[in-house]
Amino acid sequence: MNSNNARKAQFLRRSALAFALAAGLGGTGAVFAQATTGSIFGQAAPGSTIQVAGSTGVSREVPVGEDGRYRIGNLPLGSYTVNVVQNGQVVDSRKNVGLTVGASSEVSFAGAATAANAQALESVTVNASALPPIDVSAVDSRTVVTSEQLARLPLGRTAEAIALLAPGAVTGNGAFGRTVSFGGAGVSENAYYINGYNTSDPLKNLGGVSLPYGAIDQQEVYTGGYSAMYGRSDGGVISQVGKRGTNEWHFGAQLLWEPKFARASRPNQYFPNATLPDRYSYTDDTLPGTLYRSREGDTQWTRTVSAYIGGPLIKDKLYMFVAAETEKSEGTTTNSVLLTPNATNHYTYDLPKYYAKLDWNINDSNILEFTGIRSVDEESGKYSTFDYDDRVHTGFEGQYPDTTKIASKYGIAKYTSYITDDLTFSATYGKSHTDDIRRNPGDQGLPFISSATNQDPALNGGDPIRNSTATTQKNAPDANSKTRGLRADLEWQVGDHRLTGGIDNMFYSAHNEGVATTGPGYLWIYGHAGDPTLDLVPALGVGAPGGDGYYARRYIFNTTTSMSVDQKAYFLEDKWQITDKFLVTVGVRNDRFKNFNNNGRTYVNSGNQWAPRLGASWDVFGDSSLKIYGNLGRYYLALPNSVAIRGASSSTFTNEYFTYTGISPIGEPTGLTPIGPGPVSSNGEYGQPNDPKSITATDLDSQYQDEAILGFDKTLGANWVTGAKFTLRRLQAAIDDVCDPVKVEDKLAAQGVDPDSVTIPGCVIFNPGKSNNFSFANVDGSGRTEVTMSKDDWGFTQGAKRKYYALDLYLLHPFDGKWFARFDYTFSKSYGNTEGQVKSDIGQDDISKTQDWDAAELMIHSNGLLANDRKHQFKAYGYYQLTPEWMVSGAVRLTSGAPKSCLGYFGPEEDDPIGYGSSYHSCAGSLYAPGDQRQPWVKQLDLAIEYRPSFADHKLAFGFQVFNVTNENKPLATDATYEDDRFTVSNSYNTGTYFQTPRYARLTATYDF
Known about the structure:
The protein is mainly beta.
């Protein structure tokens, strides 16, 4: 480059921050979570006109300002041609300008092109590598993965697998399905979006609906620092933008096959055989060292077929894009010897997804978009009995696993109006319906028999007696959830300020959700006490079994109910360009949450919740080569619908204890003698109606978290970018339930109130560590009694605590037509006593109603590393174009293991002060903090190769991918429950519950036209 051109290039780069902001001011070019558009900005000769024409038919025209700057925002994703027009003629042009969702693409025109030399004009193709690699207008933390990268990288075909590419993102506990944790937050604290509409799980907020893999245009993964326009997440955001039709017809199809012969088998699992402390024994001393779970022959195959078609129904006006994907998996997996039934599940997964989009360019100033989505996740199977003594299958005996089906439908409409060059209005409205089916084809009304290996061998002939009932819970046949939502934004540029304001409302309703116990409405659980002279549950009046220590308990669990949630918000934000190099974003959001029980009565009303957001970006040299940025923000989290289950609505959760003298042919104990007062419930759940005014603190604070981020991005020559970021997150308020009514009785008595005159719920929802006010109904109906309960009143020594800090480092080589690579390292720590809304170590998904905080004794020595802590994370992924026909790619993840927990009876004397059994942070008589030990490191290497033959014009492709190349088999989680009874160690303690997927291969054939 000669010196004159170098000076011009430097000049163009110097105001990059101002241009990027201007693009954002013209629309949503400043990075916003859940955005579906991008922006183009740059410099051209003053007095010129800029025209943009997109592959989606969108055309816009704006004048270049006197300062030589222009900006065009709120452009649908696609490929654009950008023209400079003088005196009615195009004098310069750039083609194939691609947009990144929520970001700004710079297209500047150097020199003084005129109509005189326009006839010699040759359009210049602008590649991604020609654009500034650092977006100096962004103050958030996000990772954008494009459809091109998805097609090249060896990835699982889920939104969560893509999200794991983001720094600091880790897999959630397998008990919660496909979930991800961001920045130490719980797996239920994320938000999912498709084309700007919330598609998070409407019941529990665990996961969400995503697009067919081939219909994803771009996926954004936000891990912090996002705009005041968005909220209801203190973890991360997974936002997908679907593909749309263009002025050219395109169609394609893909076939993927994961054959079972190319899948490695898991090794067998064996019972731990540890040396136990004095006074302790295993529940069954014949099991240690024997086969716990057979994996011989367990395998799986998967077939996926997908297709799409898109193009113009009316050129430049009306477009369509339709995609379909059907994934089917079949395989076998054998239950452990402790589970009922001892059998191999021959399962089938069906996951069809459908996506359709219509785009109507009404005119140059108005756009209307319609999106339809259908997603089904269905699992079924049948059991063949497995004889663990001889390790053989004895055939089908009429038992089935649950058939589950989650079927979701979404309809989304978006309207965008470019009112003027400086004023843009957009509105998105959507609705959804989700059926939640869970039933069992083999449910013949017989009670499930649990822990049959603990039956008295003198009464069953030495062989456990069971029946055909294979599962414990079922849903109501008409269980379903619905959502509807509206958000509207008005964006207005005033000088160096860009004001954005609007509303963001969502409504969720659920009908007959929750579960009931299968069979006759109860099941039997057999037990064996190591010391038969000790009371089983002294806190609830359950005595000792005596004899040889054998007993049984009748268990009832029923939580079916209906409920709804109303979430409303409004926001205002100002993006202020203080100088060409310095940008400040100031915003505030107000969220209001209301939760209703099955009678439509409010049990949570948050009131106004103000969430300030402050961000800044400094383009240090004015040439986009070094950006220093930071932000501060507060994020409020709503309670999902499921909180009403076992809370604001009636529920039953009881155990009734007996000794027995016989066992019937269907496995039920006979000759029963009660060893307790009847059905007992540690939570006071006896099916009684709940008073919604009583079960929640009247001044309940929503869960919220404060976050601070400071980082930089720096170019290294022309081909590399590096950066670092420090993140600090602190949980300021949590929500859980406390189930210790005796403490309330003590407080009332201290105030001179007769506790028997007040109806005190078994559990109430509160803010752990804070003082809360409660209003309880008087027994005689004369009114209500108010009481304030502090941390000390409940007996807690500390409040809810969750802190997370992380240092993220990265090195990036953008794709230059030959190769792309990114390397990330994260050092982090997540610690405290509150994981969030779930409890991973026991797989408890009772959102904000976990067993933590139920009583002070459960929280003793609870401080430690939290479930989603991973001290070290290293991620690398990329691809290399060997020749025009051959490409190789790979991804690797190295991650510290998850913290371990150990939950047992309390202290040296194995106390059970509140009747929760093996649930205290104490093992073998000693206190055990979470994270005193860790799971092993997790290593994952995935590789792929693709061939696109030139004879098919590179439209046909064949691929081969291998996942978990080294066939790692590390446990991702282990059984944390130490004991079955006092001084009686569970045989399954510390066995693996979830493991890495063994090595498997995928063959692909793709055609795109």
